[in-house]
Design brief:
seven-stranded parallel β-sheet, elongated, EC 3.1.1.61, 2 domains, Rossmann fold, single chain, about 300 residues, protein-glutamate methylesterase, three-stranded parallel β-sheet
Length: about 300
C-alpha cells in the first residue's frame, strides 16, 4: 500500500491492518501524526521513520509525542537496500504484542469484562485534551464500563481526522463512542466526541440533557473548544465531573475553574504522565482542578466521582 498524505495513510492502515509501515519522516512532524501513532499502537503495527538525509532533523526533535514512543527506527533515503531489508526482517519476525499477551494469559482465566455502573447517578463526565490526548483517551476510555456515565469530550485535532478518532476509540472502548452532533441524548453508555468539527459542543440548559452544537469563532484559540464545552455545562455544574488531560496551551482552564466554583468535581492530569503539561498545568496552578491524577488512575477517579 502506498499513500502520499497522512489521511490516506491512516485510512489504508485502518482498513489493511499491515504488519509494518515505512513512514516518511515529514509525516511524523505533523500534529495529526498522533492519530497514526494511536492506530499503530492499537493494531500493533511496527513502523520505520525514513528521513531525507542524515542531516535531517528527526521527528523526535520536534514532536514530544515521539519521545514517548517505543520501537521507533530511523533510516535515510540514502541507506542501502539491505538496511531496509534488515528492518523489514526484524519487524516481520518480531512476536506480535497481541500474540504475546494471549500466550501469557493462556494458563489463567480471561479477565472479566468491566462491570457496569451500579445505577446511574445522573452525573455527566466532561473531558478536554490536546497534544498527546489520543493515546490518553485510549487509556481513560478503555477503563470505562459499557454503561459508563454520559461522557462529552473535546479533542483538538485536524478536521479530517475526527471520524478516524471516533472509529479508533469505538474499536477499543466497551461503551459506544459517537461523533458530536446536535440533539444527541446524554445517556449511560454513550461517549460523544467533538474533534475536527467546525462547531462548538455544549448541552441543553435543562434536563433531559442533549447535545447542542453551536457556530462561532474559535474560543481560547480552538474550534471546537474545551472552554466552550465546560462553560455550556455551568447550569448543571453540580452534576458534572470534569477533567483536563495532556495538551499545549490553556484551553479549558478557565471553564474548569468556573465549573469548580459552581459545584463540579474537577481533575487535571499530572505532569509525570502528560505528554505536554500545558493545559493541565494551567488548570492546576489557577485552582481550576481540585486534584491532579495520573493517567493510569484517571478512569477510576472520574467514575468514582460520578457515583458520589
Amino acid at each position: 500500500m502506498l499513500a502520499n498524505n497522512l489521511m490516506m495513510a491512516y485510512n489504508q492502515a485502518e482498513a489493511g491492518q499491515p504488519t509494518f509501515a515505512f513512514v516518511e519522516d515529514g509525516f511524523t512532524k505533523l500534529p495529526e501524526f498522533e492519530m497514526m501513532l494511536a492506530l499503530f499502537s492499537a493494531l500493533d503495527v511496527r513502523w520505520v521513520s525514513v528521513m531525507d538525509s542524515v542531516n535531517s532533523a528527526p521527528g523526535q526533535s520536534v514532536s514530544p509525542l515521539l519521545n514517548v514512543g517505543a520501537g521507533i527506527f530511523e533510516l535515510t533515503k540514502a541507506d542501502p537496500p539491505r538496511d531496509f531489508l534488515q528492518y523489514f526482517d526484524m519487524m516481520v519476525k518480531a512476536p506480535r504484542r497481541n500474540a504475546l499477551a494471549q500466550r501469557a494469559a493462556a494458563p489463567a482465566r480471561a479477565a472479566p469484562a468491566p462491570r457496569a455502573s451500579a445505577g446511574y447517578s445522573g452525573k455527566i463526565i466532561l473531558i478536554g485534551s490536546s497534544t498527546g490526548g489520543v493515546e490518553a483517551l485510549r487509556t481513560v476510555l478503555g477503563g470505562f464500563p459499557a454503561q459508563c456515565p454520559p461522557t462529552l469530550i473535546v479533542q483538538h485535532t485536524g478536521s479530517s481526522f475526527g471520524p478516524g478518532l471516533v472509529s479508533l476509540l469505538d474499536r477499543i472502548c466497551p461503551a459506544k463512542v459517537v461523533a458530536a452532533d446536535d440533539n444527541l441524548s446524554l445517556e449511560p453508555g454513550r461517549i460523544v466526541i467533538a474533534a475536527g468539527q467546525k462547531r462548538h459542543m455544549g448541552v441543553s440548559p435543562r434536563k433531559p440533557l442533549r447535545t447542542r452544537m453551536k457556530d462561532g469563532p474559535p474560543i481560547s484559540g480552538h474550534l471546537p473548544s474545551v472552554d466552550a464545552l465546560f462553560s455550556a455545562c455551568l447550569p448543571v455544574a453540580k452534576d458534572v465531573v470534569a477533567a483536563i488531560l495532556t495538551g499545549m496551551g490553556q484551553d479549558g482552564a478557565r471553564g474548569l475553574l468556573d465549573l469548580r466554583k459552581a459545584g463540579a468535581t474537577t481533575f487535571a492530569q499530572d505532569e509525570q504522565s502528560s505528554v505536554v503539561y500545558g493545559m493541565p498545568r494551567v488548570a492546576w496552578e489557577t485552582g481550576a482542578a481540585q486534584k491532579q491524577v495520573s493517567l493510569t488512575r484517571m478512569s477510576k477517579a472520574l467514575l468514582q466521582a460520578s457515583q458520589s
